[in-house]
Amino acid sequence: MAKTIFLIVDGMGDTPIRQLNGKTPLEYAYKPNIVRLSARSSFAFPSVLGRLAPQSDAGVLANLGYDPLKYSTGRGWFECLGLGMGPSEGDLCLRVNFGQTSGGKLENVRVYMSKEELFELENDINSKVKIGADFYFKSGESYRGGLVIKGGERKLSQFVSNNEPGYVAKFFPNGKKLSFASPVKDKKIKSIRPARKEAKYTADLLNKFIKKSQEVIKESKVYKKRIENGLPAPNFLFLRDGAIHDPNLPSINKNYGKKWAAIAGMPLEKGIAEAAGMSVLDIEERSDLTQDIQAKADMLSYAIHKFDCVYIHVKQTDSAAHLGKYHEKYHVIEVMDRILIGRISGLIEIENGDTFVLSCDHSTSSELKRHINSNIPVMITNRGFNNTLAFGESACRKNHIKTIKKADQLMDFVMRL
Predict the structure, then answer these.
(1) Nearest 5°: phi and psi at 181?
(2) 340: DSSP letter
């Protein structure tokens, strides 16, 4: 059976940057392996969610063939699933950021910390915070965490707002829920609010958790030590994307009659892969870029012989763009091209029917430092294609497969090749 490798590079798309001679980081990067594969490729340039700027959950779901507006019950479910927290139907699951506020206003939504610091804060929160309901907090990568509040006699509700500026929760008539990136115009921190009357108890519970956690964090050794050392110190928790329902994704293996594996170190992407029925291979996100990409390339060399299709996720492009570091973003693409794409070039047999897809979940503007609603660049390498353009946003805009209008149409197209 022909093999498929599906690489999703987080936030890879961007806008032209003056300092890069009017090119995007993807276009500017030195990427000989991608250019070589471009010659046997066709491009796509689909929208993820139209005029709305998607989060990664919507983008990854769409790339893997799931319409986010049909399946998403809230990012929090996938986040907590990927953290190994084992959520159950009726539990409230949320994504958490360690951030900074000052005088009730936003300073930073991301305070990067070591795994040791995050684990220490996790223990402090779980042992010292009391809110009158059972909960479980677990730290994730860099500044992230997950929160599961157990459903008890009083039902919990997903109809609550986010308290993180820049992410607006929207509810849809079919009970589905998504959050969208938006410009931060007002840095005043707002409490979590109920969107329906029955959600008041849940909103009150979350606000209590935030307040009590803030008190515990400020008394923690981690906080005091970072203050002493002049480092950014977390003093606030941002919660978003509460979900209480299992999205019940149809199995991707059954959908396409092929056995899928996932190589992903981030909780969200691991959670989506698990929910889709993929075999999630044991790999951790590494802080060193070269080591991280190398580990994923090595894991791919193993997985491609055991599975029909392999989904790989690379995170660092999005992280760089959120910090406005466009030079780091194109550097990530160059390292990825040299190590991972180079390995992929040696693993796939195009003339024997293998397919390689290079895509992204959304575009992240390095100038705006946030997700934007532009279409995403996609390269599909297969023996049936020929091309003269080098892969990038401009090339995709100029010459793309017209039938792939939405990102959730991409997988069906690829699986028919």
Answers:
(1) -70, 140
(2) I
Distance CA 202, CA 327 (A): 43
Report the DSSP pairing between strands 309-314 and 4-9: parallel
**Band of pLDDT at residue 125, cut at 50, 70 and 90:** very high
Helix residue ranges per DSSP H, 83-181: 115-128
Q: For residue 367, what are the contacts with CB-CB under 8 A and spacing of at least 6?
A: 15, 17, 324, 326
Q: What are 365's two structure tokens?
A: 């503007």
Token duo for residue 99: 């951030």
Closest listed residue to residue 358, CA positions, set 304, 307, 297, 314:
314
DSSP H or E run through 225: helix 221-228
The three-state secondary structure class of 222 is helix
Could you read off the pLDDT of 346-357 as tens digits, one per residue?
Answer: 999 999 999 999
Q: Kindly report, residue by residue over 316-344, the tens digit of the pLDDT.
A: 999 999 999 999 999 999 999 999 999 99
Counted residue by residue, the chain has a size of: 417
What are the structure tokens assigned to 85, written together?
Answer: 């927290």
Residue 184 confidence (pLDDT) above 90: no
Q: What is the rounded CA–CA span in Å between residue 361 and residue 9?
A: 7
Helix (H) or strand (E) holding 106: strand 105-108
Structural domains in the chain, sorted by start: 4-71+248-415 (3.40.720.10), 79-243 (no CATH)
Any bridge partners for residue 23, and if so which?
17
Neighbours of 77 (CB within 10 A): 32
3-class SS at 322?
helix
Single-letter residue type at 209: F
The token pair at 382 is 């297969």
For helices 326-336 and 289-303, the axis angle rounded to 10 degrees is 30
Tokens 């992410």 appear where?
A: 167
pLDDT value at position 394? Answer: 97
End-to-end CA distance of the chain: 12
Q: ∠63-64-66 over CA atoms, to 5°? A: 95
